[in-house]
Design a protein that fits this description.
- The chain is built from 18 helices and no strands.
- It is an all-alpha fold.
- Among the domains are: 107 residues, Serine Threonine Protein Phosphatase 5, Tetratricopeptide repeat; 63 residues, Serine Threonine Protein Phosphatase 5, Tetratricopeptide repeat.
- α3 packs antiparallel against α4 and α11 packs parallel to α13.
């Protein structure tokens, strides 16, 4: 099931605002609110305010804005696409598909609508229908690297790794400055055991976007696979610095430190994982192992018991 965060990462706003920081978004929200007060019939302002609310994670409010925009302009295809985005973030997938269908009927050449519907259809297991939408998007915009990025992500999700790599190659050829394409291709290289190639791709992603925590974390994983634990820990350190709310780099750093025999330091990382993901079975198991190595037997048993409880709860 797609999470809200995944939906925001994958789904594409149709025109309107690009994603901005919180302060800029709140300023924009106030500006669009003033615009609709002055002109209550201004459909585009409602659409754009909906985009700001989506950027802020206010998906219910965003849907209300898109509803108003569509009421005022039933032919505003972008509002349907954006409303689908917000509905997908709330896991309202069938309603989102209906909105995307409306957008495509209004504007058959709407690449955003085709890409988003392709992603949604893929997410619910309708790969052939998804492929048809993504092929049409490619036909309409063959020089737009985002089309190849989306096609690659869908192919990767369905285990078609070589085809996915070809799509990411194509995206990079169209835009060598796209860090996302390098990061995505790196993930597939890791899955295929091509760790040196993955390290190179993540290095390119980081060069293009030095604040990309995911690329540092992912490069750390590839470095660890190659046995370069010191380099991996350095990458995880940077990922933690850039995105301290994320559990993943703590978990990976804990694993690397445990492999280096730094069990106390690994414990501290697993503590941070459990703080952020209280039901993470693997974090409890790994922490239990580290505690057992350190002779803290009772605490280790308690962690093993908690891991078992979570596993039973998830049955």
């Amino acid at each position: 099931m797609m999470t809200s965060r995944q939906a925001r990462a994958y789904f594409l706003p149709a025109n309107g605002l690009e994603e901005a920081g919180t302060s800029e978004s709140r300023e924009a929200l106030a500006a669009y609110s003033q615009a609709v007060r002055l002109r209550p019939d201004y459909a585009e302002a409602y659409n754009n305010r909906g985009n700001v609310n989506s950027n802020l994670g206010n998906f219910e409010e965003a849907i209300a804005d898109y509803d108003r925009a569509i009421h005022l302009r039933p032919d505003l295809a972008d509002a349907y696409v954006n409303r689908a985005n917000a509905k997908a973030a709330l896991h309202q997938f069938q309603d989102a598909l209906a909105d995307l269908g409306s957008a495509i009927r209004i504007d058959p050449g709407n690449v955003f609508a085709l890409l988003n519907r392709g992603l949604l259809l893929s997410e619910i297991g309708q790969y052939e229908d998804a492929a048809a939408d993504l092929n049409e998007a490619l036909h309409l915009e063959p020089e737009y690297e985002r089309v190849s990025l989306v096609r690659g992500s869908v192919m990767a999700a369905h285990g078609r790794n070589q085809e996915a790599i070809a799509e990411f190659d194509r995206a990079i050829g169209l835009n060598p400055g796209n860090s996302e394409a390098f990061n995505s291709r790196g993930l597939l290289h890791v899955e295929l055991g091509r760790y040196e190639a993955a390290v190179a791709d993540y290095a390119s992603a980081i060069r293009l976007r030095p604040d990309c925590a995911a690329a540092y974390n992912n490069r750390g994983v590839a470095q660890a696979k190659l046995g370069r634990l010191g380099a991996a820990v350095i990458d995880y350190d940077e990922a933690v610095r850039l995105q301290p709310e994320s559990a993943e780099p703590y978990f990976n750093r804990g694993n690397a430190k445990e492999r280096r025999g730094e069990h106390e330091e690994a414990l501290a990382d697993y503590d941070q994982v459990i703080l952020r993901r209280p039901n993470d079975i693997e974090a409890y198991r790994n922490r239990a192992v580290a505690k057992a190595v350190l002779g803290r037997t009772d605490e280790a048993r308690s962690d093993f018991d908690r891991a078992l409880e979570i596993a039973i709860e998830n049955l």
